[in-house]
Each structure stands twice: as C-alpha cells, then as structure tokens.
Amino acid sequence: MNKWTGLSAAAVLESRAQHGANLIPTKKLTPFWLLFLEQFKSLVVILLLVATILSLVVAIISGVNANWLFDHNLVIEWTQPFVILITVLANSLIGSIQEFKAQKSAHTLKSLTQPFTRVFREEGLVSLPVGEVVVGDIIFLEAGDIIPADGKVLQANHLRCMESFLTGESVPVDKSVVNTGGKGLLEQTNLLFSGAQVVFGSGVFEVTAVGLNTQVGQIVKTVDSSATKLSPLQQKLEKVGKWFSWFGLGLFVVVFLVQLGLLGFHNFSANWSIALIGAIALVVAIIPEGLVTFINVIFALSVQKLTKQKAIIKYLAAIETLGGVQIICTDKTGTLTQNKMKVVDYFCFSNTTQTDLARALCLCNNATVNTNGDSTGDPTEIALLQWLDRDGLELNHYTRVYEKAFDSNRKLMSVVVQKDNRFIVIVKGAHDVLLPLCKGLDSNQIKPLIDERASNGLRNLAVGLKVLYCFDPENTQTVNELESELDFLGFVSLQDPPRIESKAAIMACHQANITPIMITGDHLKTATAIAKELGILTDERQAILGVDLDPAKIMEYRVFARVTPQQKLEIVNAWKQAGYTVAVTGDGVNDAPALVTSDVGCCMGQTGVDIAKDAADVIISDDNFATIVNGIEQGRKTFLTCKRVLFNLFLTSIAGTIVVLLGLFVLGEVFREQLSKANHNFQVFTPTQLLIINLFVHGFPAVALAIQPVQEKLMLKPFSTKNLFYNRGGFDLIWQSLLLSFLTLLFYSLGMVYAINDPELGKSGDLINRAGATCGFMVLGGSAALNSLNLMVDRPLVATNPKHYGIVWLGALSSIFVFLLIIFINPLGLVFSTLKDLTAHPVLIGYSFGGVLLYMTINEVVKLIRLSYGSV
C-alpha cells in the first residue's frame, strides 16, 4: 500500500474546481405550506374562491344597507361565503396533509450511506468523508467498503464486488486490473462503480468520475427531469372540472344579466344583490364542490389501508393508477425470490456421506454466520454455511495452513487443513473445471446430473479432496500440484428460491387479466426456471436475452434476461405506447429510469437504494410481489368507490343546475303574483343549501363506501379505468338526473302551493319560499343520500343483505340525519333557509319524504325490470 502516492492539496482543489464535488443532490421534502398552495391550482377551486369573494361582497353591501342589523336574511348572506371558503380549505388541507405524510414515510425508508472512505493523499493513507473525494484520488478498498465514486482498478487482491443495484445481477463480480469481461461499460471487470459493495478481497483504484458524472449520477439526472404523473381518473377529472367550471362561469354571467334585466335597473343595489346571489347559487349547483375533497378522502383512506399492508403510497393518485394496471414488469431477485442463495439439492458420489460433503464445504469457506443470524462474506459461501449442521462436524480438530483464493480465471478455491499428521486438500468450484482434476472419474456419469439441475436454473458447486502426509507451503511445486489427482466428493445445487407467496400472486394476476413480465439482469436459464415455476412462463420461446431483443417484437415475450437499463426502458415504453397501464418494480439505480417512465413505479423498501425510492410512486416495505397484487386489488376498489361517489356528485350537480335554472325562470314566473303580493323576490335554493347537499349528502356515504370491505371479487371481473361511466353508467346518470330534478321541482311547487293556501304561511313570501325550499331541499338531498345504497350494488336493495353493507347504510342514514336536524331544529333552519316549526305542517313532511321514497321506488323498479331480463 505504501507505493501509492496521492494528490497534493493544490491538486485536490484544482480537480474539484474542474470536475465538481462528489455529491449527488437528494430530493428534499416539499414543505407543507407549498403542498397546501399547490392545491389551489385547480380551476374548480379558483372559481369557488371567486364565488366566496362575490358572496362576501354581497354580504357587506347587504350589511351596509341594513345598517348592520343582523336579521335572519343577513345572517344567511354572511354564512354563505364562509361555508364556501371552509369547503375549499378543507379540500386543500386533506390533500396536502396526506401527501406530506406519504412523503415523510418514504423519506424515513431511505438508507444511510457510508460517510468515510480511505484515500491516498500526499500525507499518506487518510480517512475522509465520501463527499471530499475528487477525480484523480487513489482509494484503498477492502471487504465491507462501499465504493465512493467511479474509477479504474489499479490493484486487485481477489477483489469481488456486488453491483446488483446497478446491473441487476445477484452474483458478485470479480474485479481485475485488466478487463476480462465484455465490451459494455458495466461488463468491464477493470472498472468500479459508485455505490457498489466490496464483498471479498481488497484493492486500489483511481477515481475517474464523481457526483453527477458517475453512472449513478447520470441516472439521477434522468429521474430528476421526469414529469409529474397523473392518474387516469385525475386526467378525466381535470377535463371534467374545467368543463364544469367554464360552463358554470358562462351560465353565471348569462343568468346574472338576465335576472338583473327581469328585476329591473331601479333599486339597483338590491336587485344587483338578488341577481348575484341567484347566479352564485347556479355556480355552486353546477360545480361539484366535493369532487376533489371526496376523491382525496377516498384515496387517503385507501392509502392508510395499504400502508398497513406494507405498501407506502407516495402520491394519493398512485393508488387509483395501481388499480388500473394491466402489465407488471417485475424484477426477479428479491421481489419474486428471497434474495438470498439457498442450497436446494446435493449429490454425494460413491461412498461419500453428507457429513463428508458438509465438512469439506465448511472447511473450504471464508464466510461467517453468527448464532443471531448475522452473516458476512460471499453470498454463495453464506448459503453453504446456512445449509449445514455444523455441530457434529468436529471442525475444531482441523487447522487451516494454506489457502489459494478463488479467482475468475481458475474458477476454483483451495485450502489445506491439517488434522493430526495429515494434510487434507479441499477444492471447490465450477464443475466443468473441477471434474477433469479428479482421478478415476467418468465425468459422463456426473455431467448429466449437473446439466439437469443447470437446466432448471440451479448453480452447481463441485467439491473434491485429497490427503497429503507432508506439505510445505513455501514449496512452489507442491502448491502448483494441489489442484490435481482429487477424489470427487459430490456437488451442491444452489438457487435464490421463489418467495412462498409469489406463485399465488402470479396466479391472481392471470385471473385479473394482468400480465406479469420478468425483467432481470440474471442468466436466462435461471430466469426461465423461476418464471416457469411461478407460472409467468409457459413456453420457453417467450424468454429472450437482452442482446437478442428486437424492439418490434417486445410484446411477444414474458421473460427478459441479462437486460440493460436502456432495454428495460424500451420494454416499458413499448407496452405504454400500445395503450397499456404499466407498473414496474425495482430496487437498484439501474431501475430508476423505468420506475419514472412507468405509470406506477414500485420500489422495494428493504433493498431499494435512495435514487430508486425517489423515482417510485409506491414503496413496497416488505419487498414482496404479493403486496403489489394486494395494492392492485385495493386500487380497483378505490376506483370503483370513486366512480360511485362521482356518479352521485354529478347526479346532484346536473339535477341541481336544472332545478335552479327552471326555478328561477319558470317557477319564479308561475308564482310571481303570489310572491309579489307578499313582497318577496323568488329564489330557488341558496348557495349554502346547495353546499350542504354537495358536501354532507355525499360526505358520509363517500367515507362509508371507502371503508366498506369489498364484497365483489374485483380481481375476477373485467376492469377498466378508461371509461368513467361504462356499462350503462352514462345513460343512468342522464335519466336519474332528469328524474331527480323533476321530482325536486314537483315537490318544491307542491310545498309552495300548500304554503300559499295556508292562512299563516301565505302572508309571507319568505315563508312561502321556505316551505317550497324545505320540500325541495329534502327531496334533492335525501334522494342523493339514499342513492349511495343504489350505487353500492347492481341488484335491487330488497334482494341484498343489509349486514353485508352495514357501513354504507350507516353513512346514508347519517346524511339523512343531518337533513332532519336542519329542517326540524329552528336555529339551523334559520341559517339554511328552511321552514321553522315543520312539525306543525305534517303535509310538508309528507311531501319531503314522499319525494325521496318515490325516487328510490322508481330506481328499485328499474333494477327489478333489468334483473328480470338478466341485464343486472
């Protein structure tokens, strides 16, 4: 080590100025306040804020005109802007809180990197923080070290590195001064890469790239430049929200001007306020205020469920995208398999016993496994020790006197151990190299046994020995003749075995019409064997090496082996361009570009590197493929719940808009004479009433639908996120909206007719309007609340067991309870413009509940008719 001369202080400064620092910027947590402000980008939210300001202006003007004497009308006007504002703030808080929580959860899973490394500088070998390494530095490495930068090997003493995070290959790579590997950058054995771990030996290398100029850094640049993903539902809702907003804005202007014209320009201040409140009511009716709020609530509840199931969702919308996944491009090592080598078979030759084989493998081994399960060393050697029962092997009777370490050229490791006066030479290594070194052995007897196991993706390690009665480690001739004239003991077969849950998870994918695809850096035979065992592959012709990949035929294959990061990206893009929703799993730096490009990137939480976690949308904290499948099922339930809630939201928005429009220009004219006699300007529903319907009516059922356990076998049903209201949904929305608006207007009118003919109510235009509003309010809101029960199942409610849907029943009845409080408790009735002392008018109560029952009855009849024709 002393022969290496490092950089001077001046050279270090010059190198850092020219090539930069050895730092890769990590993504910082987005501040909560910024997440909160980002919620206000939506056009729907902006329009509601404008409605808040206009309502506040109306309230201020009304207050000035009334000399700030707060009668019930002024109370109502001052209530409206704050109700709208609370709606906007609640939505923004829910979304920002959940995204901040998910962001923090993902951040805590990030691993800590090695803070120091040993560097040759002009003063000798010193320990420095990794960030101070510069191009030109000479670094000393030994087992356990993390390589701090990219570089070129200057000295290698049986140096082996684990580069799986970058290449995807789970076997350590032998490093050498001269390249003995392929021409590809990651295949060259004389190059080292930042982030790789030294698992054996020692070495020295010269730094050639630091920070963002390393291979890891280049991938980070790709990840950081990626665009934000939107889920299918988000994309649709963004369009729907804009449509509702622009349509509402247009109607707002038209209705305001038409109303102002009808009311006249005399007494401008009062008429302006009336016209503006009517126009605001229309905007509130058109815009489904709960659109974002309820979707965020449903997403948040689903995210919490998945967190308990070991899946951390970084962005709320990822849960819904996960439900629509059609293709899963999954890594093999650690995701489908256990990510640890295991002896799965062995063969003892001739008179060799398992004890003889086990003892030889223990003695020719440099790994250590502690009683608490901690291990160090080469993964293959660790697997050998974990397979063996060492208690009866009497290993303390043997003393190692010589070792000839494994190297990639010989593909052998040899040791000499002494017991009493005997020296025992033990050699293990690749069967094709070791078998010719054994005496009196017909390799044709053994080779078919090994080939059979190799064809099943198993790695085979052969063992032989011989006994010497004298041994001089200083005698070169004796050392060179060690690996000859061996007695063959047998071989062991190793594999990184599949996880127990993986096969069932793959079967669930096939049942759900989801295609699992294996993309790995491992060997083709190994990948094919695992894929066949798990059910990913049925025909070996569907497995291909990365170098043989034809981009035009990507979708013909189900297994891709020895794949580069660029090829993995090509595979993902091919499926996406064909119109499929693609999920990708990964844990290494090499996986980051594909994780970003996919619709849903799933990073392994235990083995995943920070860059991969930053790139992913979902972090699988137990590194289990089955967890992803559970996430897809939860995602499907989430989308189905969102669809049901959105149906109800759009139902009340469309029906409410029709009611407000026809109420202003039809009912207002029909009852103009009676209302004018009572000195009252007609107004259908206040903005506050409509907000109560849009929030509380849908709020409780929305939460209930999200909590309600799935009754349907969603993974066995056809599923699509492309059409929001597929399978009759659009038609049902239209006819139910027309039905609900008709019934609301009908019972609104009946309520007003009753009040006009009532001796007490008929004296006041305000009471006449409140009587009609009470009936219409209950019909519109109560019907929408109970309609969540209709949406819950396609069958008639009379044919379902309420116990199976108890939570949804509770949610719907909670909404009805809110309505009962409003219409029966006087102070609330005052604020929400309903009639006080409703118990004195049982006819109005009958109208209110009669309209709701009529709506539900018609729905049940339609379902029964469909059931009779087998279309449910």
Distance between the termini: 80 Å
Estimate the helix proportion, in percent. 40-55%
Radius of gyration: 37 Å
Name of the CATH architecture of the largest domain: Up-down Bundle
Q: How many beta-strand runs?
A: 23
Average pLDDT, all residues: 83
Task: Provide the number of structural domains.
Answer: 4
Taking the sheet with the most strands, its summary is: 8 strands, mixed
Helix-and-strand structural type:
alpha+beta
Give the number of helices: 28
Q: In which order are the strands of the major sheet placed?
A: 8-23-22-21-9-18-20-19
- Give the CATH topology of the largest domain: Calcium-transporting ATPase, transmembrane domain
The outline comes out as elongated
Assign the CATH class of the largest domain.
Mainly Alpha
CATH superfamily of the largest domain: Calcium-transporting ATPase, transmembrane domain
Query: Approximately how much beta-strand content do the residues carry?
Result: 15-25%
- Outline the low-pLDDT stretches: 109-114
